[in-house]
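Feature request, filed as a ticket because there's no other form

It would be nice if the structure record came with a short human-readable summary line next to the tokens. Right now we just get the raw output. Example of a typical job, pasted below so the devs can see what we mean:
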Amino acid sequence: MRQLFLDTETTGLDVNDGHKMIEIAILEMVDRKITTNYIQFYLNPQRLIDEGATRIHGITNEQLLDKPKFEEVIDEIIEFVDQSEIIIHNAKFDLSFLNKEFLALKNRTFDSYVNKVIDTLIMARGKYPGAKNSLNVLCDRFKIDKTKRKFHGALIDCELLAEVYLKLTEENTSLLSFHDEKQNNSTNLDGKFNKFDTLNLNLMVIKPSLAEINVHNQILKDLHSSSKGNCEWYNKNSIN
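Raw output as currently delivered:
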């Protein structure tokens, strides 16, 4: 499975104030292995960068004078993403900038060119509700080395995000492997499943609290929204 990690740096925080992208990077992962395949562009935004933004990413106006405009690299970006799964931390922010540029140049949003978008911020909030879940915090939580991140940078952040995503999803991978192993062990040669005796297991049923139910439903609602209405769990499995 091909997945791509994407990050951008911008002239400021709000696309509605006319701010633009000044860096974009997309890093490839295939079957949970990071490859050497990536694209990275510094962009001339044709406007000044906010001083506060430069303090975060370290990119200055002078550095971008000879860089391409976004319209000059958009086709290469489309070719690279090629209906892959895109993983972004705080996808709402990056997509607001990407979609505005894509609508102006292609009359289509960026996310219409990809298979789906996964937001690791939503994933992290679901796993650690109430905690801070910035990329820096998640790197610290998972003991990921971020010493090379003196400034925010799109490619560096893609590399860190890839490691964070692998940590966020390794339990799911382990559970799937365990399920496959149990399934294989419980299947006869004729393809029929053996029955398990659960009468003597003394299983305890713990019902969720109202607060837990509300958090669960909010996570599903966020997933449903970020997947453009494609979260089947939202309608089928929400706890009421």
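Something like this underneath would help us a lot:
The helical segments are 51-57, 74-81, 91-106, 120-127, 135-141, 154-185, 210-226, 232-236.
The two ends are 34 Å apart (CA to CA).
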